[in-house]
Structures are given as C-alpha cells and as structure tokens.
Design brief:
Layout lengths: L2 H23 L3 E3 L9 E4 L6 E16 L5 E6 L15 E6 L7 E6 L5 E4 L4 H4 L1 E3 L12 H9 L1
Parallel strand pairs: 3-5
Antiparallel strand pairs: 1-2, 2-3, 3-4, 4-7, 5-6, 6-8
C-alpha cells in the first residue's frame, strides 16, 4: 500500500470515529455492523427512535471556490468509489468531518439529497448544516433549566 493510500485510509477512519463520537455525545445510539454495508454508520435518533443510515465523508476546502477574502468554501464530496451518488436506500444522512491538523474536528450532519457535492462557506457552515459537538452532554434526558422553572411556576 502506498503512503498516500495509507494516509487516505487513516483520514477516512479518523472521520468515521469522530462522527461516531459526535453522534454518541449528542444522545444517538450507534450500532456496529458485522458485515460490510453501503453505509458507514447505522444509528438510532434519540428523539424518535428511528434507525438511520449515515455516510461519513471528510470535509475539504474547495480551492476553486475562493471568496474575496481569500478563504475557500468547504465541500463534502458525496460520491461512491464508482463515481455515483448515494441514493436514499444507502444513506439517509451525510456526516462531514472537518479535521484541520492540530485542531479539534468539527462534525456536520445534513440530509442526503442525492447530490455529488455539498458546499458552503466556513462562516455559514453551522447555519446551513447541523453541527454536532463532540463534547459529551450527560444531561440530554433532563429538561432545560428554563423549562423546569416554567413548569414549577405553573
């Protein structure tokens, strides 16, 4: 295996582990398949209990979409090895992991719209895509403090 192929494999595995970590930190149940599947992650939504298939991709900077300030847009390339897009039977969601050397990765999740590319500016990424924190939130099942105060006042 060449060094470039090895680095690509490491980056892909890192992105998948970061995506799993972010999903777990946000209350999702993450499942492990014993067989090879078209999706990378099977997870259960915390609020609905619905099982969803997730394809994990690494977010990259798109150098051909540089803005006036010299900052390039972010892009998630959502193609399979054969060049086709993921259909809805293969992935309900796409999770993009933006890993900059030496920084904590940022994890974004969005619905699969069967596109080959999903892009946006860095400034709009958290507005356009759902950003999942990798920080553990142990209080996901507890009501927000404001909600508790309103319930007591009633």
């Amino acid at each position: 295996m060449s060094n470039i192929a090895h680095q690509t494999e490491i980056t892909g595995k890192y992105s998948e582990l970061a995506a799993r970590l972010a999903l777990l930190a946000n209350g999702w149940t993450v499942h492990t398949a014993e067989t090879a599947e078209a999706y990378d992650v099977l997870a259960t939504e915390p609020l609905t209990g619905r099982h969803v298939k997730i394809q994990v991709k690494t977010v990259r900077r798109r150098s051909d979409r540089e803005r006036g300030d010299g900052v390039a847009d972010l892009v998630v390339y959502a193609k399979k090895g054969n060049g086709t897009t993921y259909d809805l039977s293969e992935a309900d969601y796409i999770v993009g992991v933006w890993a900059v050397d030496g920084e904590i990765p940022r994890v974004f999740m969005f619905e699969n719209r069967c596109l080959s590319e999903y892009w946006c500016s860095e400034a709009k990424a958290s507005e356009r895509w759902v950003e999942l924190s990798i920080a553990l939130n142990r209080n996901l099942d507890e009501p927000e403090p404001e909600t508790s105060a309103l319930a007591l006042a009633a």
